[in-house]
Amino acid sequence: MNPDEVAVAAARNELLQVNASLRRGEFDHAEAMLADAARILPDDAETLRLQGLVHHLRGRLGDALGLLRAAHARWPDHAGILNTLGGALRDAGDSEGAIAALRKSCELDPLAAAAWYNLGVALISHGRNEEAAAVFARALDIDPMHLAAQLAHADTLARLQQREQAAARYRTTLQIHPDNARAQIGLAAVDAASLTDGEFAALRSLTNASALGDNERVAAQFAFAHALEARGDSEAAFAAFTTANAARRQALNWNSAHFSQLIDQVADAFAQPAARNPDTSSGNDVVLVVGWPGDGTDRLMAALAAHPEVSVGSGAPELVNVIQEESTRRGAAFPVWVATASADDWQRLGRRYLERSARWRRPHAVYVDPALPNWPFLGALFSMLPGARVIDMRGDALETCWACYRRPFPRGSEAYAYDFADLAAHWHDHERLMLYWHARHAQRIYQQDGSRLATEPAAAVRGLLEFCALPFAAECAKKAAAAPAVVPANVYGRHLDPLRRLLDPFAR
């Protein structure tokens, strides 16, 4: 072997080591080795792919996309480049581009479990959970030991309410990785009642594990509270819920008084009729669901998602993002700029919302935006999209607040939910502003009683679909009736008396 061949062989070995170092998170070491290899193989496909991957992992997304697109143009059938490009496109927000690139990568190399896994992640970001579940299963057929695919498959099955299958997948993962915290927490979340004594003991130990980060420890505490609840120990469960909520509340910056002031400002801003998009039909295929997370909302979304003429969004805060973009452009916070917004401004903002939500909408279907916290922005919505409709999901105050208190939201989400006083203040703000919107947009807002979806699913769903201008579908009522219910608040008796008093409008 001549010196050039030796150098090339050494460089290719270095590229293999770069891959291994990146998997271990050793970015500095990987980048240094990659620079060495690039001196010998500057135009090699794997060199360019890895350079793009390093840019991506280092947060230099623009550099990554530029390099990977150029590499793809040069080697259009290189599965590895397509796989890496797909991951970068996904993180850049181009989920459709990511899915296309990753599908092509899987076609070119159908035995690459990593590419199937990445395709599943891209499908999740596009809200296509059923497709994602099948893709994760394909990755596991190829490589049953792929831990990330095991966990992603279980998580996706849980989102699809396939609880038994999700629990089975979590247990399969725990057979291989018995100390995996995410699998332990996920198992308790989907089927706390089925935990064996050994699984229960392991979960108890996990709540005090020193290796856990703060966010993961709080998730474990919530999971343990649910396990105690499933065993009928409401005293211990309430104490565990209190501990978990206190820890999460301490980590968040939430000010109920400031939020109440914002609600006052919103009501004042729309006290006089605002200008609006002159195209009165704009948004006539858009339905927003607003309200609070809980049993009723889960039933409603299950019912709507089952309709063949409905396309459901991912829950991304597209309306809020559009309003924030306009606030940034104007250099003024919402709702300060509402009074100066013209009909043309609202038409432009309506188009922007439709652009941002286009990835989830499909032709000849009603688009349902499930971002529940949109309720403070309905005045802006109706100015932007005069044809849009809103489903106001309502439930019992105590049951709804308690359902939120016992729910482990992603960190930073629903920041009001971790303290009784914050919950009650938020409930009162929600009630008074929704009454305000109903008074001004009565024909555009439909109030849905959450309990009726459980007790009279066919009748409730029929009225709901009529409001959405959709034909009745029996499958929708079936899905509403089948959604699992939460543990009722009365199980906790006197422990919830402080919350009851705070929610009483006559006690304020």
Structure at a glance:
The protein has 25 helices and five strands.
CATH topology of one domain: Rossmann fold
Question: In terms of structural class, how would the helical and strand content be classed?
Answer: mainly alpha
How many helical stretches? 25
Oligomer: single chain
Strand content: under 5%
The mean pLDDT is 91
Q: Fraction of residues in helices?
A: 55-70%
Distance between the termini: 87 Å
Low-confidence stretches: none
SSE run: HHHHHHHHHHHHHHHEHEHHEHEHHEHHHH
CATH superfamily of one domain: P-loop containing nucleotide triphosphate hydrolases
Strand line-up in the sheet with most strands: 2-3-1-4-5
Inertia-based shape: globular
What does the main sheet amount to?
5 strands, parallel
CATH architecture of one domain, by name, is 3-Layer(aba) Sandwich
The beta-strand count equals 5
CA radius of gyration: 25 Å
What do these coordinates show?
This protein has 508 residues and is mainly alpha-helical. It has a domain at 279-507: 3-Layer(aba) Sandwich (Rossmann fold). Helices cover 63% and strands 5% of the residues. The chain is built from 25 helices and 5 strands. The protein has helices at 3-23, 27-40, 45-57, 61-74, 79-91, 95-108, 113-125, 129-142, 147-159, 163-176, 181-191, 197-206, 214-230, 234-251, 256-269, 295-305, 318-330, 343-356, 378-384, 397-405, 420-440, 450-455, 457-467, 474-482, 497-503, and strands at residues 286-290, 310-312, 366-369, 389-394, 445-449. Strands 2-3-1-4-5 form a 5-stranded parallel β-sheet, with helices on both faces. α7 runs parallel beside α9, α15 (256-269) runs parallel beside α21 and α21 (420-440) packs parallel to α25 (497-503). The protein is globular, with a radius of gyration of 25 Å. 42% of the residues are buried.
